[in-house]
Amino acid sequence: MKKIVLIFCLLCFANITRAQSSKTIDLNQIIQLIDKYVIEENIPSVVVGIVQNGQLIETISRGEMKRDSGQKVNGQTLYQIGSLSKSFTAIIINSLEEEGLLSVNDPLSKYLEGDIPSDAIVQYQSITLASVLQHRAGLPNNGASIPPTPNGTAMKGGYGKEAMLKDLSTLEVDTAKVGKFNYSNLGFAIMGYVAQKVSGESYEELLQKYIAQPLGMSATTTLQTQEVMVKAATPYMVGGDRTRETSAWEMGLGVAGGGVLSNIKDLSKLMIAEMQAFAKYKAHGAESPLVLTAHTQELNEYMDYGFGFFDSRNTFDSTVVQMGHGGDLDGFASQFEYYPNHDMGLIMLTASGFGGWNELKSMIERVMLGIPLPAEISVTKDIVKRYTGTYQFTSGSELKLYRKGKDLKVYIKGWGSQTLYAQNETRFNWRGRNAALEFELDAKGKLSRAVYIENGKKHYPKKIK
Question: Are 115 and 124 in contact (CB under 8 A)?
């Protein structure tokens, strides 16, 4: 009962900035989703922006700049946006190509000449800049010399030029992965380096020149000066203890893959500009550095990838097209997604991500787009306990089911822990994925088989513990 009262009070005193909208969005339902997430996950701060018809129509903010500070976050609070920065780098690369300073069809080797030994540069002759932007260059996720981030702590010191060039001189490109999607932060560090090399300007200068200044994004930066960081939320560790402070990542050349700082106000300007550019591209073929999905490669039946940007079909309703990227730095996290056929967009920033962060994004976008949320019922602790244990797929990957109160929680490496919601006593749904676990019982009510269903496809993980 206390939780119901609290959510009601939060609804009453929600910190919301609203503009005019031509279509009614169920704002109360979105607020309830945000408040439930903040309470259950102990989130220090989150700010959500909703774009529609070429304007930022809602800004919903929760939490404080720093726990117990009394200073509330808002649409101008800065957050490090993680891998959403990759789309900024792609825009910079497109802009440099437009000016004739490079070509995405050039081999990477052309831009590494004089930097690494000739015998090492050979393997980069068959890799184009486009393939790097699409994560299809056979590069590892990170360079061997990148500073460690043990237990999710922030990177310190950054990834320097000498370290990256050393890594490029000694690593062996995985030729079996060339042409196949293989996510690479290293690849975007290289793209940032190439951009700086051909232009003679720093990444910060390029960011301001091609994106921030033209779009009036006055707060967006890579700098972490005292003047900047006083406007940023304090990030907190993810996982079981969201009360431990961490900090922004010091990324060096890695800034091109994850180090940009921005806020809802600025990101909405970028989103609106991208949506307008995409509309012109679809209608008239008008080229623009802001169109990051002009050249895509298929990842699966629901998803393609362009230059630092996903082009997807919503798995709950495949008629819905959505484009964007997210980011997570074991503290700061972001979501940036627009829906061109609905003239809508969603921007989310938090100071403690992972876990249910992607789930919250999926739930909010379903409300925005009118895709029904899953029906849920309450089940007993005994029913939940019946299914706990470790299950292994034929691929060798595992999922762990455990009970927390009356909830059935799932942990998969790389996904973090999430709550499964009961549709009935034998079927539990993910909220943020078109996925469910069904449990088949024998005549005595004991578990006989688990069925994992995603996008209509069935898999049969075996219980091993």
Answer: no
Classify residue 434 by its DSSP letter: S
Distance CA 219, CA 266 (A): 7
- Helix/strand/coil for 312: strand
Structure tokens at 79: 């957050």
Q: pTM of this prediction?
A: 0.89
Three-state SS string over 374-390 comes to: CCCCCCCHHHHHHCCEE
Q: How confident is the model over 253-276, as pLDDT tens digits?
A: 999 999 999 999 999 999 999 999
Q: Among 255, 199, 205, which Cα is nearest to 85's?
A: 255
For the residues of 323-347, what is the DSSP string, one character each? EEEEEE-SS-EEEEEEETTTTEEEE
Q: Return the axis-axis angle of helices 85-98 and 185-199, rounded to nearest 10°.
A: 40
Cβ–Cβ < 8 Å for 418, 405: no
Helix (DSSP H) and strand (DSSP E) numbers for the chain: 14, 20
| Cα dist from 390 to 75, 401, 409, 430, 465, whole Å | 42, 6, 12, 17, 5
For residue 365, is pLDDT > 50? yes
Which residues, in sequence order, are bridge partners of residue 272? none
**Span of 18-32, 117-131, 185-199, 389-403 with lowest mean pLDDT:** 18-32
What is the residue whose two structure tokens read 């449990």?
439
Q: Which run of H or E residues covers position 195? A: helix 185-199
- Six-digit token string for 5: 């009262």
Pairing verdict, β 462-463 and 303-305: unpaired
The pair of three-digit structure tokens given for residue 144, joined into one six-digit string = 């061997």
